[in-house]
Amino acid sequence: MNANPPAPLSERTISVVKSTAPVLEKHGEELTRHFYERMFRENPEVKPLFNASNQSGGTQQRALAGAICAFAANVDQLEVLGAAVERIAQKHAGLGILPEHYPIVGSNLLASIREVLGDGATDEVIDAWAEAYHFLASILIGRESHIYTIQARDEHGWNGFRPFRIAGKERESETIVSFRLQPVDGGMVPGFKPGQYLTVRVPDGEGSTTMRNYSLSSAPCADHFRISVKAEEGGTVSNLLHGLDVGAELEVGPPCGEFFLDLTEHHTRPLVLLSAGVGVTPILSILESVLAEQPEREVVFIHGAINGRTHAFRNHVKDLGKRHNQLKVHVRYSEPTDEDRSSQRHDSEGFIDAELIESLAPRKDCDYYFCGPKPFMAAIYQQLLAWGIPGSQVHFEFFGPREELESHA
Ligand SMILES: Cc1cc2nc3c(=O)[nH]c(=O)nc-3n(C[C@H](O)[C@H](O)[C@H](O)COP(=O)(O)OP(=O)(O)OC[C@H]3O[C@@H](n4cnc5c(N)ncnc54)[C@H](O)[C@@H]3O)c2cc1C
Ligand code: HEM
Q1: Among 23, 349, 310, CA closest to 172
Q2: Given the CA of residue 95, which atom of ligand 2 is nearest to it?
Q3: DSSP of 240-289
Q4: Is residue 202 located within the same domain as residue 242?
Q5: Ligand 1 centroid vs 201 CA: distance in angstroms?
Q6: Between residues 165 and 58, which one has the greater pLDDT?
Q7: Domain, as residue range, for 389
Q8: Against a cut of 0.85, is the pTM above it?
Q9: Is residue 1 part of a domain?
Q10: What is the Å distance from ligand 1's center to 235 Cα?
Q11: Hey, which residues are catalytic here?
Q12: Which of the two residues, 333 and 9, has the higher pLDDT score?
């Protein structure tokens, strides 16, 4: 993964970091608050990189400082860190995090650790944390630099942000609108792996910018990207996007993300695609791609929506189901309207649960891909674990910091 892996940490460093990690974990909120306040005061240039909503959520969220500490607590288990490294590096690469940002986060994190540990922050403790941070930073910097090289090497690829124009806008449901995005320079777009996301950068209305990820919602296409955005109540970027007209311009980062269906591999197991609400976006990209590229593969698509008004891509997916014998589609509404019932817009009522999945999947031994709101994700994940499905067959995307999901599960 990294051409020059850093030298391993000493036993002593590992033991000091591990012995202090639980205290930092306990004071996660204080650490987070101190870290962000200090960093944004001392280094305001990095503020636009962060999603303000991820820091202001309060008790549940520990955000970056907490995540780094949790991550550091596993410095002696590189096999555990492996998958996390890829996820974080992809997230960082989407946001355009660069090597010069690392000392900024490092110095502010160490100052915050010193503050939280108080008298416990001996020179030995601080030195050990500095070493552990440097170790993790060099792994991430190595992987991110490799991702940037691959992005730039693609004939139609780029690094950083590229201006795109909204070439089409289509309403998919009461709350979800799709945007067709084309490069302003008239060029093509690079391919991507179905399941990946883009990073969109927009003005924040206060003279700076803010970024959000949006999953690509269709199979790759040479001349445009498509994203589909739900207008979140009180949400800054989603509502800004909904208010833009065809012709408006946006800055877009290259496709990133470690959640994808690998179409270069030959799969023998059936594919079970589960989604709820706007979580359908990466799943639809996977669905369209697998039908086109691996038509021999058996696919089950199960989608949950509140009702027919909020159900996006209904006709499109229904049509795919009619045209492809290998695809089984099932739609479940949690609060169907009378009209939904009379027009038979859905197949069943309630939430997606184990019983439903079991009744539709050809067998339990399938590859599972899922995306949706937090309770949905937690329920599906627990269920697949309870069935003993190996981790290598369980893939999911979460539309927020993974930490938040783990604390919910
Ligand atoms: C990998 C990934 C893929 C994604 N793909 C999609 C996709 O395909 N489609 C899609 O629609 N979304 C997707 N998202 C979610 C998307 O990135 C945004 O988070 C979403 O659009 C909301 O952004 P916003 O700016 O509108 O809301 P924000 O302004 O970020 O607010 C989010 C919520 O937090 C609340 N909030 C904001 N500020 C505060 C505060 N100070 N205190 C308390 N609450 C607050 C808001 O009311 C709102 O409900 C994805 C996210 C990730 C990480
Ligand atoms: C060793 C160093 C670092 C580690 C271990 C680390 C770890 C993480 C983790 C675990 C996440 C959450 C990923 C998820 O969504 O699940 C994350 C997100 C993020 N990281 Fe890093 N990171 C490091 C350095 C940096 C640096 C140097 C920056 C740049 C200033 C940075 C900026 C971000 C941003 C902006 C996010 C997205 C979350 C948000 O908007 O609040 N990180 N990082």
Answers
A1: 310
A2: 35
A3: HHHHPPTT-EEEEEEEE-S----TTS---S-EEEEEEGGGHHHHHHHHHH
A4: yes
A5: 13
A6: 165
A7: 271-408
A8: yes
A9: no
A10: 6
A11: 102, 144
A12: 333
